[in-house]
């Protein structure tokens, strides 16, 4: 195991002593103790299950202090604590295993190998023991949490539940502690009134908001809110979505300029509900429990947890619009309420107002995918009170989710999905059959308007997609942004986060990015990185204004290595000027020296019917055939083997000159790491089911980690891109194209951050139909690539 | 979805009224209500999140009562309740989805299709509404729990937490209700003194016992205990186990009679610890939380939950012995303590006694695999107090786990594992490095003795395995037995449970068996069967003596169909006399008409090196090649296609006459269902992660179900067997064998309960090396099968 911690704040000795005193490790008496006595004193404070003399005795006899002696034996011999003793005992406290993780004769070796934070001083003075113990409390155990959090999950902080509200929250090393009793959390519901009437019933849409807050808020403690806008969390209509999924067995056709379809519009509501009274007490409780485990972790640490599914979901009004401005407004309506700028009611009928009186007005948003997307959308409004978002695998423009360069494009794994399908899938008002009965016809009508407006016929960028592009508003962002994205996410693709990252470069807000090796997943329960601590440090700073220097302590960009497991490195830039490399496409493969040539290569998109059907049914079979076989439906270009390891960063750009045998066509490209190696498994490995406790007798999470596959593979696709040959200049505008016409184009592939191991080759594969993402026409179209005018650029190669 | 409920107890109207009154549905006032009024009254009682008028109004408007009208509209029109209205509203209460699970115009159709318990009466009288509502509370929701449990998870029973201890527990329909507050559970530890000294330190081995009991036990309530003996639950030594795993790349050799190895022995301890005092208060609490979700479910329903890892585990004394009589004695020591027959101490040193004063003395055991094995072992001692065991995927003889008919045999998926490996893996005293340090040498010495005694050289049955065979003691069983086993469990194989089932036939105890389509898994969170209710009914009867007729209500044998998902049928026998069918092996395949013939077929066990290596690395590749290709290393026999569906039950028996080209050899056989069909996925599909709540704000489980694979497969292996040709008469005794000698033998294959679909064929494949389970010698050995004297019998074919 290798530990990677980024969220340990360097603090002064004064602060260490204050915090250790707060936790009961130090008091008036401890000043008198020698270094060794102080060490035993600290150890004794970790006897939680049995603090009696017998329990202490059991601990001393069960713990090894040298390769030969137990702690009990060392103590009997009055041996002074040494660095080795401290480390050996610490390894046991951190749940590392003798003979597996460490050799008891050499604890210092394990300490380095596991990458535990280095002890700086000799341990002969009490001050050094204090330093070392403080650092140990910040250090991660084998089970993926800090030692202080591990102690917490064993009940260490339970006595602090009794502290008066005015003395809470508590922070340790800049991060909030779990000093709020989970059994006393208050769960309640309010209905926020929006300025929308998306279901055209003449009434402003009310949206249901679920709140979890500590009991201390009833005693005057005002706290910030962590808000997750999740269109999924009131249920989904999977069968309906499946039924609505579009066929991708369609042919691409020639596009002529035509009028853009209308986009659906909603009435502007005129009057607010009148207020029939006010209260500070909610009426409805909530049975549904928070499901994002990161939020569960925060819920006992001084953050209110807010969920809202928004318009068009169960118990709320309105329609699901899949990313429209109305959905953004509904999303920020909750923030406005939390910030005292908007009304909410206790129920849907009585018009009794209730404010978020318990809230400090500071809000963060969390969540992955659609949830992170709404967080991003909210941030681009510049809404007051939103201090930060942690957007994971988030969309910044829906066009790039369901379209690409004038093509209909499916998110990886979901051929035929589109905006209307997702709207239907998340329209959970179906879950209340009586409510649904009354809006069914109107919503179906809306879905049809939406289907016309999104325009699968041309795949062009239009007003529908312009409405769902948040990037032009990045300039309005006031919140600090933490982004998380999987380098293998083919669902929400890498250009979604790269655009946001780039757009934030010159804004006066902090930006942080974590790139991991997963697909479309959460990473808050990974063993090798202290992501939860990172979030805690960040939110303690942004929402509680703790002066923990989070902006400086946390690197701007943390990227997980794809070759060596459990390796995370930090940098400050995704692309670094001056490090670009260019390869020409040649009949010998990718070559760095440019050669003038009239050579060309061709491929034809049509397949025998059998093969076409196999590929359609099993895109993974197509994928392997595409990049590993000599075939007529693609052409492959490879570099020679590289002698040294390379780090490839940024947005690869492909310039191609080509002709096509008909008056329409699409060019697709994949960038491939060729080389036989044991690569990471696609999905993380479960290390410990429900093994990560998020508090004391509170929710749990599954501890996970990326591990190497048992068997080697021959390649890994690291990037890709697609373009309609009639959208060479813009996805919004149609270019002419005639059969045999020679055209040039530049195609940006998905951004990369890839470690290409020595001995591997970089490959580029050009083809047309992508069985994972595009339509499948199986048409006899020949593409001829003019090699002399075709090349690939990677902006940063180190 | 299809619902299968076996645990609904038919009860009298009197009992229904009493129980509904207890739950607050009925009171003095309700006598006056009409049928329709009573229905609304019941519905109103399910308003848990918002019981106000507004909440009730929201419910009425959100619920559909006819295909066109909401409940609010029907109520305004004063429509009387009809059966259709009751069913339509009930479908919504049970979380079924409009247009997906039911057509609102035909709720009765969905009711039948989903297999919800039939409403018997017209609903025009209050008595009929009471009947229907009572039954509805017993009926399962779409989310795999009874409606009363679904209400429970929303807080319905919270007011009953306040009942005095003397009025608890409460039962509904013969099953215990969750009326114990999970936040008030007491977690404590004691150390039971055994009569063993397996680590030879001169002291009786103490074993750690973890207890979870409701707070009401402190107020005089004595309750029964559900005890799980889990050698795993203090941690495992995976790396050590891997290192100790034996090589299977070894050749089978000729066996000559030889002396049996000695078995390890332990000293008999002479004196007990003296008692230094007594207490009723435990000293140590436990941080570790119960991990078997079935136990979590029971923990809030009036059952104390007990875990003990036993000898040789963290915080206990002694050695891990892998199933020896000592381990059985340590296992029942806990029951003896719970039953007042044995001493325990508050800690390991002070010798302060503590009794299980809160326990009624009635004990059940639960758990799967090794856990279920120890439950089985405990039951065969006839120990007082053990009223029942629920043994899942349990071993009844360790010989059949690690050996078979004179062969070393791996549990499926674990080639090279053996008793010594498992002992090392579960010896969690390693987790206390100081404790481990002092017993390391002695335990290693014991492991070596064990390795000699288990005798991988011959694979014969000997005293080591005799000690670990619980079947001769089945006759001592006093407890009622519920068994659960996966029909695809190749780890703990089907003959383990069949032997126990058969052995119990004539004993004066109740026996119940559930056979499911899983491998080596738990089934308590499956949607299509009410397994948790079955257990609740069973334990309420066995431990609380509730007169719920569990023995009669529950079928003796419930088996899951392997063709149609969500189909469970009940029967009372595994094998039914008079239904045997026999097939002769012929050159035309398996034929029912016996023919005199001197035909023979041959196969040779040697493979080309490449193929041998591929098969060794990837046993699944071998498996497919074995049964689907014409090859020289096996011979296949198939029946013609069957015209009708067949149910194949019991232990298939293969009689073979053969010669082998050398003086040693092993014959292996697989029974195969041939036919192209979409079969069940190997593992259950997760329907709802953490979607099954086991109480109110309490632990959760993942809702699962077996679903059909997306793609058809061509075969499924349904049984198998292996035999050493030198153990034709007994696994304990060596037969002579010379090259070319003709021998006859009978091989029992693993028991089956298999639905062979019409159009499929039954196949028998004979071969030698099993890359999944046997050693792999890759030796040129030719086997010649004499067809005229070879046949297959299946004892029950219907």
Automatic annotation (TrEMBL), chains A, B:
GO process annotations (BP): proteolysis
Signal peptide: none
Segments forming domain Xaa-Pro dipeptidyl-peptidase C-terminal: 536-793
InterPro entries associated with the record: AB_hydrolase_fold, Galactose-bd-like_sf, Pept_S15_Xpro, PepX_N_dom, PepX_N_dom_sf, Xaa-Pro-like_dom, Xaa-Pro_dipept_C
Ranges where the X-Prolyl dipeptidyl aminopeptidase PepX N-terminal domain occurs: 1-156
Keyword line: Aminopeptidase, Hydrolase, Protease, Serine protease
UniProt keyword Ligase present: no
Gene3D superfamilies with a match to the protein in the record: 1.10.246.70, alpha/beta hydrolase, Galactose-binding domain-like
Chain residue ranges for the region called Disordered: 254-276
Annotated EC: 3.4.14.11
Catalytic activity: Hydrolyzes Xaa-Pro-|- bonds to release unblocked, N-terminal dipeptides from substrates including Ala-Pro-|-p-nitroanilide and (sequentially) Tyr-Pro-|-Phe-Pro-|-Gly-Pro-|-Ile
One Gene Ontology MF term: dipeptidyl-peptidase activity
Subunit structure as annotated in this protein's UniProt entry: Homodimer.
Job description of the protein: Removes N-terminal dipeptides sequentially from polypeptides having unsubstituted N-termini provided that the penultimate residue is proline.
Similarity section: Belongs to the peptidase S15 family.
Protein name in UniProt: Xaa-Pro dipeptidyl-peptidase
Classification of source organism: Bacteria, Bacillati, Bacillota, Bacilli, Lactobacillales
